[in-house]
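Duplicate of #3305? Posting structure anyway:
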């Protein structure tokens, strides 16, 4: 189901700070940064997706590129699939968190060769269905998908049309949920909150009232620290079980999150490109920054600065010699 910070001399991409809200990512590929693919200029443009974890990646990368390496950094908010088009065309230089888009990878990395792999982020992502842990403790069998229909009435909402509600975030995120509900013959309706922020607001309200809910969710994600959730076991994932999007009837895989660079930038981006290839941290690192942004209400710049001040041994290894 990614942000910003600043440059050595001025705050860059200030408008992109609106992403802090997590509202549905606008397609801004037609409003690409004037600094993207700038020949000979010490500038970098990073693609920003709408979820806070991805914002954390960019915040720290942008902070270090600006403060330690003297680059001007701009950010552009782009949905997941259009981000690949923008990257291919040089409208942005890098995507720092991709959750797996094999069609785009085949087209641009293997075919056109306009995008180059940037290495693993160091974080493994996983999408799944979750219920609040307080509900799972009361009803342990709800964590098996085969028992979900027994709870459909309790999970019904005005938006779910008489069926149980499966709450999703943005329709632009990677999701097989409609196919899963249909192919597993479940009495549920997928309801999109519209964005990560809206989805979090609903889950926090349910939790405050101790109401049950079933939701599409993913890790790493800071909200687990505030609203403990337990995963519902779906039919086991096997290689290729999700090859046909219409016939998916298995769980989501565990996906090593990856970075991608514009192919020209990867070759000519010098130390900035080398730094982004070296950028690699843990789930705990990302969640630490995400929690500061989303829960503690620090700006991305403030959160990045705070993390950088306490983790020099991690980020110094990313700096090219």
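Output from current build:
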């Amino acid at each position: 189901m990614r942000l910003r910070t600043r440059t050595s001399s001025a705050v860059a991409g200030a408008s992109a700070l609106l992403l802090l809200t997590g509202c549905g990512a606008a397609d801004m590929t037609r409003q690409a940064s004037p600094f993207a693919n700038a020949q000979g200029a010490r500038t970098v443009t990073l693609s920003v997706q709408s979820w806070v974890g991805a914002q954390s990646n960019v915040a720290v990368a942008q902070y270090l590129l600006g403060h330690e390496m003297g680059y001007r950094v701009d950010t552009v908010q782009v949905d997941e699939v259009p981000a690949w088009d923008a990257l291919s065309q040089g409208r942005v230089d890098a995507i720092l968190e991709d959750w797996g888009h094999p069609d785009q990878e085949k087209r641009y990395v293997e075919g056109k060769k306009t995008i180059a792999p940037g290495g693993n982020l160091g974080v493994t992502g996983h999408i799944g269905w979750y219920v609040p842990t307080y509900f799972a403790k009361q009803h342990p069998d709800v964590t098996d998908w085969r028992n979900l229909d027994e709870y459909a009435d309790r999970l019904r909402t005005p938006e779910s049309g008489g069926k149980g509600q499966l709450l999703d975030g943005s329709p632009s995120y990677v999701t097989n949920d409609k196919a899963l509900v249909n192919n597993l013959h479940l009495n549920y309706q997928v309801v999109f909150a519209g964005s990560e922020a809206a989805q979090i607001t609903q889950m926090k309200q349910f939790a405050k009232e101790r109401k049950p809910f079933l939701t599409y969710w993913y890790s790493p994600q800071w909200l687990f620290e505030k609203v403990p959730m337990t995963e519902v076991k779906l039919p086991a994932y096997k290689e290729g079980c999700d090859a046909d999007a219409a016939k998916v009837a298995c769980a989501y895989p565990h996906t090593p999150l990856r970075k991608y660079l514009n192919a020209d930038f990867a070759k000519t981006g010098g130390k900035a490109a080398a730094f982004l290839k070296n950028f690699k941290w843990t789930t705990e690192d990302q969640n630490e920054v995400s929690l500061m942004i989303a829960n503690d209400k620090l700006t991305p710049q403030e959160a990045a600065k705070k993390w950088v001040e306490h983790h020099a041994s991690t980020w110094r290894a990313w700096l090219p010699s």
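Confirmed duplicate; merging threads. The radius of gyration is 20 Å. Strands lie at 43-48, 72-77, 94-98, 115-132, 164-168, 188-192, 214-219, 229-232, 254-262.
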